[in-house]
Amino acid sequence: MGAQAVKTSADDIVLELRGLTKVFGSGAAAVRAVDGIDLTVRRGELVIIMGPSGSGKTTLLTLIGGLLKPTSGTVHINGIDITAMKESALTQVRRHNVGFIFQSYNLLESLSAVENVEVVLDLAGRGGRGAAVKAEQILVDLGMGHRLHFKPRDLSGGEKQRVSVARAMINDPDLMLADEPTANLDSKHGPEIVLLLRAVAKELGRTAVIVSHDVRIQELADRILWFEDGRFKDNPEPAVAPAEEKTTGV
Amino acid sequence: MVPLARRYLFSDKIRLAIAAGGVAFAVLLIVLVQAFFQGIIDQIGRFASAAPSDLWVMQAGTPDPSHGASILPNSVLSDLQDVPGVAAAQPLLGRAMQVGSARFGFVMAVPEGPFQAQTIEAFGAQSSPERGQVILSAVLAKDIGAGRGDAVDIAASSFEVIDVSSSLVGSFSVGALLDSQDAAQLFGDPEAFSFALVFVSQDADPEQVAAAIEDQVPGTAALTPQEFADVLRQEIEDGLRPIGAVLFGLAFVVGLAVIALTIYTSTVERTRDYGVLKAVGASPGQLFAVVIRQSLIVALAGYVLGSALGIASGRLLQDAVPQFVLVFRWQDFLLVLAAVLVMSAVATLVPVRRVASIDPAMVFRA
Ligand SMILES: Nc1ncnc2c1ncn2[C@@H]1O[C@H](COP(=O)(O)OP(=O)(O)OP(=O)(O)O)[C@@H](O)[C@H]1O
Ligand SMILES: [Mg+2]
């Protein structure tokens, strides 16, 4: 089916990258970590970006999340260009539009599992009476009901990553960004986490972009993009709807 | 609401205890020094305001009885009577002298005069001792370890302690009340007295009478009890202020350093946490609030602890060293509270800048 065959309203596009470039350093020492990337990701999609170490995956993800300013190019989230935003506006984007999941979990060690999730609601100005309940509910939904008040140091890696998925989801962002979420997990718990993200994407209409070099999770992606030296190996720009392109590029 | 600041502080209880203890020490020091100074100031003022009269008249240039003795010839008494508006003048003897082992006692006596009985009462005794007897203020008695019935040396003479009175007022509350002839003998001049307590006639204005006295009786100074008290306090305060300022400054620096170090190390240790919080949507202001709240908790805990310790140790100190008359005033506690709040604010300046400079992208690096 051609591009014309699928009608996608602009609303369905959650993430759009145009000519996205990040150069570290200058002159002979310059590193083009991300080199003119174009990408469109639609609602409900789970995209996995795979590539070798040093290929620029993390750099790409931090650009998408607005944690790093690109050298050139644009990032649109829900149709809004975040590259031109001031820091205060970016803070709002981080609160409401994106959720991060990290390889090393990055949970706050002084807080319990439920507090790690609740604190994000507080920051977004949605704290208060219902916040703890909402945080607990989401952890229960993710199978963490028996560990609500555990500190991160008393949780297994898989459990910690569930808490960070809960944290990334709690503010109902359209876009979830995960950097090597399975790298510290075994072959059972790694795919489990990605399955979880997939379920969230499909059931709640969220979008997930995962960067990873973990081949165990390939089959869970709607789309796999191969990334090397700051570029996609094949032209990833889909002219088709998510469903049709599930296995492209593999 | 997740109490992030409290969680951070209480996750290292030893550090919290050291920090609060350090602030408490600074607060304790300030509170005690202030109470001690205030005690001195209050005591010396009490001597001046105890007079039942409208005016104090003394030798010009000797406002502070602990530094210079006021000596007026007896003829001044009749001169005072001639000043318009003066109703009566009651002489008073008073001079700083060695009493027993105490280098500084204030020996007083109330000679015969129109208001002898009232004056003795006003200074806190029931009646004048007989010759060879002395009434000691409680503070002085405790200081030299003398009790009722003991013998006490003043200059070269020995006196029998007939009473120890907590109401007896002397300069610095170290009063020793004698018979007036004994006192005159000790002071070495029976033709002289120290102060005249002047009562003005009903329709006269004490201020005007004071001016008239200074005018018509050369070599005298006339002050209302309030003015005299202020002069005495002022003199003491001027002497104490630099010492107080130095101690206050030291305590402030100690408190500030303790809070600043605690908050700074805690912030550095949690650099990654603050980065994560930024990445998940914390504004700089929200992160500052976490830092500032930690600083406030440390400061206030130290303040409460230090104040309580100050009052408690003040009691013990006052028992052990009777010359320490400690006066705790709520204004002083408020001042210390203000100082502690300033400490906690200043202590966050560097940590807050550090938090502001954290790059949230760092949290992606393992
Ligand atoms: N802040 C920076 N300053 C300079 N160079 C950087 C910076 N961040 C990344 N780079 C460089 O950019 C390139 C891409 O790094 P990046 O971390 O994005 O790779 P990656 O694909 O995530 O690697 P890995 O799989 O090991 O995590 C690397 O050569 C790295 O050295
Ligand atoms: Mg990486």
Write structural notes for this entry.
- The complex is a heterodimer of chains A (250) and B (366).
- Chain A has 250 residues and is α/β, with parallel strands linked by helices.
- Chain A has six helices and ten strands; from the N terminus they run E-E-E-H-E-E-H-E-H-H-H-E-H-E-E-E.
- Chain B has 366 residues and is of the alpha+beta class.
- Chain B has two domains: 2-43 and 239-364, no CATH class; 55-223, no CATH class.
- Chain B has helices spanning 4-10, 13-49, 75-82, 116-122, 138-144, 180-187, 206-216, 225-269, 271-279, 284-320, 330-347, 349-356; strands at residues 55-59, 72-73, 86-99, 102-109, 133-137, 151-154, 157-165, 175-178, 192-193, 195-200, 220-223.
- In chain B, strands 6-7-5-8-4-3-10-1-11 form a nine-stranded mixed sheet, sandwiched between helices. Chain B has a two-stranded antiparallel ribbon with strand order 2-9.
- The mean pLDDT of chain B is 90.
- Classes of the chains: A alpha/beta (250), B alpha+beta (366).
- At the A-B interface, helix 1, helix 2 and helix 3 of A face helix 1 and helix 9 of B.
- Magnesium ion (MG) binds at residues 57-58, 179 of chain A.
Structure at a glance:
The complex is a heterodimer of chains A (250) and B (366). By secondary structure, chain A is of the alpha/beta class.
